[in-house]
Every structure is written in C-alpha cells, then in structure tokens.
Inverse folding.
C-alpha cells in the first residue's frame, strides 16, 4: 500500500480528535485528497486491503504488510518525520477469530525472543471485548483484535475481520537471529 493516505482515514478508524495518531504530516501538493497525509499507522491501509478483497467475494484472506509509519518530531513540521518500521496483519474468513490472530502475534514475537504479557486495550477501531495489547516491560509491542463492526462498516467490510499492528522497530532492536521454517 502507499505511505500516503486520506485524511478521512482517522475518522474511518474512529480515532478521537486528540489521538496522537492524528498528528500527521500533511502534504503541501498531494496528488489528491486520497494521498494527502503521511500515515502514522498501518491499520487503515490494511482495512482498505481487506475491504477490496471482501468486495471481490474472496471468501477468506490473510495479509501482512511490513512498512513504515511516519511520526512527526514536532508540529508544525520543521524536520523529516521519524520513519518507524511496523508490521500489520489482517485476516478474515471461516475459522478465523481473535485467537487465530493472537497465535500469529505470539509466534512472531516468540521468534524474536519476546514473551509478552497481555492486557485489554481500548482502540476505537477494535471490538471492545475482543482486543488486547502485547506488552514488554509494560510498554505495548503489539495491538490486535477483531475490527469493530462500526469501523468495518465505514471501510465497507462485511466479514468479521481481524487486525494487528506490531512495532517492528522493537523487533529489529531485539537483535536475535531469525529462524526461518
């Protein structure tokens, strides 16, 4: 997906007006409104991918994206934003549920030597009873769960969908040999 998103993506995710992820770099001369903001999270892009495939009547799908998010160091922007690597997972289809996604997140984190603790989160784009954060030393390394029906509706997703976003910069910093199966 593109590093540039629509400014409407924050509203579609249901992020409150004071959410830090709304503090984004707005382009001076964008190609159009759909590409006018540098993304601060990958979930919105993943939900667009899930929506496209759901509309094409693909009964089940699993996707991932390893890319960068752009976090401004100050507002107004006076220097290049921090380019932070992130990993996003999205899935839907028969047999997919919260625990399928949790297992994928656990496998990835374990591959980098992490044994997280879990706590409930309150992400507005995730179902209130089916979301969690994976914590390392009290800080969130991943947030995952079932997409809230309202957010799914705003993105035009009819299926029950699940997403996770993982701080890939923290995985890279772990500096462990990666074992490929």
């Amino acid at each position: 997906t593109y590093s540039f998103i629509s400014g409407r993506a924050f509203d579609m995710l249901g992020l409150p007006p004071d959410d830090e992820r709304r503090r984004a770099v707005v382009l001076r001369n964008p190609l159009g409104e759909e590409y006018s903001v540098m993304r601060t999270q990958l979930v919105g892009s993943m939900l667009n991918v899930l929506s496209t495939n759901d509309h094409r009547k693909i009964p089940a799908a699993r996707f991932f994206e390893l890319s960068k998010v752009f976090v401004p160091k100050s507002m107004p922007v006076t220097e290049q934003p921090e380019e932070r690597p992130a990993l996003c997972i999205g899935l839907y289809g028969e047999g997919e549920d919260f625990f399928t996604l949790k297992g994928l997140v656990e496998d990835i984190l374990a591959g980098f030597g992490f044994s997280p603790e879990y706590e409930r989160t309150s992400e507005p784009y995730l179902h209130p009873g089916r979301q969690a954060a994976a914590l390392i030393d009290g800080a969130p390394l991943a947030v995952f769960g079932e997409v809230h029906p309202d957010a799914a509706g705003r993105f035009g997703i009819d299926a029950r969908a699940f997403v996770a976003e993982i701080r890939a910069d923290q995985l890279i910093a772990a500096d462990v040999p990666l074992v490929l199966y």
